[in-house]
Structure formats: C-alpha cells, structure tokens
C-alpha cells in the first residue's frame, strides 16, 4: 500500500510538554506479558482488552487503530520531545513510529504489551533522528568530572548539599533541565533513557547500539557532570 | 582484608556501588572508606540527590489528549492515497 506524503506541521496547535513523574509501576505500565487468549466472559466487558484490541487491529478495524493512536500518542510525544527537544521533530518521530508499527503489526508476537512495543519503536525513531543530526558540537565532559591528586585523594573535597534540596521548587527543576541540556548529546541521551524513561541498562544499550558497559560508563559520567554543574548552586554559591 | 580504595576508585565506581553491582568484599571496602571520608560521603549524597532531581525535573503534566491533527495524520497513513 502506498503511503501518503508526510504530514507537515506548519504551526503546531499544542505545545509538546514532558510528562509527569510517575511511579515506576505507572511509568512502565506495559511491562508485563500480555496473554493473547480470547475473552470468554461477558461480551460487554472483554476479559483482556489488550487481546481484544490486538484482534481488532489484526482484522483491520479502523476504530481499533484510532483507539491505539489516541491512547499511545501522548506518551510517545512525551518521550520523543524529551529526546529531540523539538515539538515538530517529536511529532514526526511519533508518526515514523506508527508507520513502522503498522507495517510490523502482522509480526507482533505479543511478547510485550502493545504500548511497550510502540514506545520502544518511538524511542528508536527519535534516536534515528538524533543520529541524523550533525553532531559536530560534541564537547568533552572532563571539566565537570572530579579531579584527584597523585595518591588518589580528591583534589577538591566535596562539600555537603542541603538535606532538603527543594525538589518541589520550579527553579530547581529548571536548573536541572538546563544542566541536562548542557551535556553532550551522547550523554544526555543516556540520562534520559536510563534515569528519566527508566529503561534498563540492556534496553538502553540495545536502543543506542552500544554495549552495556558503555551505557554504564556514560551514565555515571553524565551524572557526575550534572552533579558538578549543580554543585555551586546547590551550595548557595551561585545566583 | 581488602585494602581501602582511594577517593578516585570510590568515585569512579560509585555508580556500580550505588546500583549494588560490586561484590561483597569490595562493597565492604567502599563502605569502610565512606565511613572515614567525609568528602566521599558528601559526594555520594549529592550524586544520589542529582538522580532524584533529574527525575523531578521532568515531573510535568502530560497532554490530556493527543493533538487531533496528529491523530488524523497518523490514521491517514493506513488509508489508500
């Protein structure tokens, strides 16, 4: 089937904003395996709405496709906008993801839930767009990493941060986001996938096409850099 | 008994320590270092807080409904041109 020309977002009607922090259980609602047995209880309340939706999708039910798109698009926009930092590109990546998902649906084996499957596809779509961007602006993290004297002691002892970091304060959140945005792209992406989207190390490695060891190293260095960027402000030394 | 790690070793493997991925002997040595070294204790606290702040930084309300024009564009993909 030929696909129509891509939809052009000349003027987005809605801003794409990141989503709320949720408990891990909520944030990963589709992690459990979905049985694909047909519903056998009362016909008005399917025993397994996911299986029923999947069956309708496979039968080509347009209403089922509309349901899937409406249910999944907000979460996909959230993750793609975080990765891409562009509302237009985030929407294009979501569109890419659904194109890929519709094509792959006949091969979907229900080993994960539909939402998890499409969410992964959306992450891959966003990462593909990130990789396509010029990355000549990669900078070194070294200036934000701890320094040591010859015998291995810290060159500059770490000072304590306040016990109450004011995590509810809007200003703190803006500072942290700005710090994350200062990270080189390869590190920023790992922070988003591991700490914000809460992918496992294996999942992040697979999405990024790098080893699990590389994910761990990048994540640790990125966290150290963020800590260094926030340190003066957290200790009240910077305005 | 394992030698105490240096500050450099502690901070280099802090992520693994925090994730519980060090073997018990090394974990024990890390913890003895942390008992003795206020600088590394401060660093560990701020490292953990940094991760919490990252998560809180993205605690924003999600879109209640998807943009209609996006939904329409996606659904149009399935229909013959």
Q: Would you summarize the structure shown here?
A:
Chain A is 54% helix and 0% strand. Chain A is built from nine helices and no strands. The N and C termini of chain A lie far apart (58 Å).
List the helices and strands and how they pair.
The complex is a heterodimer of chains A (239) and B (81).
Chain A: H1 24-27, H2 49-58, H3 62-84, H4 87-104, H5 114-132, H6 170-182, H7 185-196, H8 201-208, H9 212-234
Helix pairs in contact in A: 2-3, 3-4, 3-5, 4-5, 7-9, 8-9
Chain B: H1 7-12, H2 14-18, H3 24-36, H4 38-57, H5 68-78
Helix pairs in contact in B: 3-4
**Main sheet record of chain A:** none
Proportion in β-strands of chain A: under 5%
How many domains, in number, for the residues of chain B? 1
Helical percentage of chain A: 40-55%
CATH class of chain B: Mainly Alpha
Radius of gyration of chain A, in Å, reads: 21 Å
Looking at how many chains there are and whether they match, the oligomeric state comes to heterodimer
Order of helices and strands of chain A: HHHHHHHHH
> Quick one: how many beta strands of chain A?
0
What would you report as the Rg of chain B, rounded to the nearest angstrom?
23 Å
Count of helix runs of chain A: 9
General form of chain A: elongated
Mean pLDDT of chain B: 89
* Low-confidence residue ranges of chain A: 1-40
Largest contact between chains: A-B, 65 and 48 residues
Structural class of chain B: mainly alpha
Q: Using the alpha-carbon principal axes, give the shape of chain B.
A: elongated
- What name is given to the CATH topology of chain B? Arc Repressor Mutant, subunit A
């Amino acid at each position: 089937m030929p696909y129509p020309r891509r939809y052009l977002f000349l003027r987005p009607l809605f801003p794409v904003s990141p989503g709320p922090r949720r408990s891990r259980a909520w944030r990963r609602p589709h992690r459990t395996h979905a049985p694909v047995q047909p519903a056998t209880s009362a016909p008005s309340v399917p025993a397994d709405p996911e299986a029923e939706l999947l069956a309708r999708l496979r039968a080509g039910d347009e209403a089922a496709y509309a349901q899937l798109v409406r249910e999944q698009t907000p979460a996909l926009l959230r993750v793609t906008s975080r990765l891409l930092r562009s509302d237009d590109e985030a929407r294009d990546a979501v569109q890419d993801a659904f194109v890929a998902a519709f094509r792959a649906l006949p091969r979907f084996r229900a080993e994960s839930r539909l939402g998890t499957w499409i969410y992964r596809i959306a992450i891959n779509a966003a990462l593909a767009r990130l990789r396509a961007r010029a990355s000549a602006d990669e900078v070194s993290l070294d200036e934000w990493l701890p320094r040591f004297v010859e015998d291995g002691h810290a060159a500059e002892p770490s000072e304590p941060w306040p016990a109450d970091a004011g995590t509810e304060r809007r200003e703190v959140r803006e500072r942290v986001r700005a710090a994350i945005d200062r990270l080189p792209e390869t590190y920023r992406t790992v922070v988003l996938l591991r700490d914000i989207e809460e992918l496992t190390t294996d999942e992040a490695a697979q999405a990024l096409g790098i080893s699990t060891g590389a994910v761990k190293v990048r994540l640790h260095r990125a966290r150290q850099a963020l800590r260094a960027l926030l340190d003066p402000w957290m200790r009240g030394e910077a305005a | 008994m394992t030698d105490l790690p240096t500050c450099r070793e502690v901070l280099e493997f802090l992520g693994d320590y925090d994730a519980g991925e060090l073997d018990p002997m090394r974990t024990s040595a890390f913890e003895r270092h942390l008992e003795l070294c206020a600088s590394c204790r401060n660093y560990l606290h701020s490292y953990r807080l940094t991760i919490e702040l990252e998560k809180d930084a993205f605690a924003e309300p999600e879109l209640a409904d998807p943009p209609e024009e996006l939904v329409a564009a996606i659904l149009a993909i399935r229909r013959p041109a």
